[in-house]
Design goal:
By secondary structure, the protein is α+β, with helices and mostly antiparallel strands. The chain has one domain. The protein is 46% helix and 25% strand. The protein is built from 5 helices and 7 strands; from the N terminus they run H-E-H-E-E-E-E-H-H-E-E-H. It has helices at residues 2-48, 60-69, 130-133, 135-139, 169-190; strands spanning 54-57, 73-81, 84-95, 100-108, 113-120, 151-153, 161-163. The protein has a 5-stranded antiparallel β-sheet, with helices on both faces. Strand 4 (100-108) and strand 5 form a beta hairpin. The chain starts with a helix and ends with a helix. Belongs to the RnfG family. It is an enzyme of class 7 (translocase). It is a single-pass membrane protein. Keywords: Cell membrane, Electron transport, Flavoprotein, FMN, Membrane, Phosphoprotein, Translocase, Transmembrane, Transmembrane helix, Transport. It is found in: Cell membrane.
Length: 192
């Protein structure tokens, strides 16, 4: 009986020490990981706005208002040329077939989409993964209006249409919801 209690106590101590070490490691690395992710987003935004010379997070009060009223928007970054805002990078999240899809949408101050980039997804290979693998999908957003809801079609030609991927309906619909969330944030908060 004493041996069982002794082994149980040793196991408890090992588990407690391990949990403490893991908590400490998480506390130390969490800000570093967040900064790396933020720099990665800035890099993707820089590709969308090559003429920009600075990038700044949107004012916290405006961002909080957007997030409170929009289920998709996670972050907004301003692209600046000198002191002038030339566009916004909106990090948006939606749910696809395989889980969360996190995308970055670039919208310039003329109300046009200048970039679309999927940052994270776990969609089915060969089907939903085409939102990343098929370059024509991302290209179908470029130049589209950011002042009206976008819809997927097989042969996009109108200002509010993008490429629908056959066999990847759930993934396409998830991207549509996220992009339209970014459009909504632009129209209601950023274009003013």
């Amino acid at each position: 009986m004493k041996e069982t209690i002794k082994l149980g106590l040793i196991l408890f101590l090992v588990a407690a020490i391990s949990a403490g070490v893991l908590a400490f490691a998480n506390e130390v690395t969490a800000p570093i990981i967040a900064e790396i992710e933020r720099q990665g987003s800035f890099g993707a935004i820089a590709e969308m706005f090559p003429e920009a010379d600075d990038f700044q997070p949107l004012e916290e009060d405006v961002l909080n208002e957007i997030i409170a009223n929009n289920n998709f928007v996670q972050e907004v970054t301003k692209a600046l040329k000198g002191e002038e805002v030339i566009g916004y990078g909106l990090k948006v999240k939606s749910v696809g077939y395989g889980g969360d899809i996190i995308s970055l949408i670039g919208i310039n101050t003329e109300g046009r989409i200048v970039g679309f980039n999927v940052l994270q997804m776990s969609e089915t290979a060969g089907l939903g993964s085409r939102i990343v693998d098929d370059p024509t999908f991302a290209e179908s957003f470029i130049g589209k209006s950011a002042t009206e809801k976008l819809v997927p079609v097989e042969a996009p030609s109108a200002d509010n249409e993008f490429l629908a991927l056959s066999g990847a309906t759930v993934s396409t619909t998830a991207v549509q919801a996220a992009v339209n969330g970014a459009v909504d944030a632009y129209v209601n908060y950023l274009s003013k």
